[in-house]
């Protein structure tokens, strides 16, 4: 059950990052990255284990990658602007940091 909660929480963090990253150009990106690190780290803090943080990080990556592909109406949720590319690159670095931080 903890794995399911980790997947749902990681996907919710990813959705929040997708929706928040482009609002108020640098502030939204910074807030989404900070919330990603804090959220993924808190999963390991709550349930004690790097495995749950890794599962949540993989769910986050799945949501972010899916948002980067065109949808049914050919719309992109993460565009190829510097903010969108920064979310992809810095988001992966933030996930590595969140998974490797001690509990």
UniProtKB/TrEMBL annotation:
Keywords: Membrane, Transmembrane, Transmembrane helix. The keyword Membrane applies. The chain crosses the membrane at residues 23-44, 51-69, 81-101. This is Unannotated protein. It comes from freshwater metagenome. The lineage of its organism: unclassified sequences, metagenomes, ecological metagenomes.
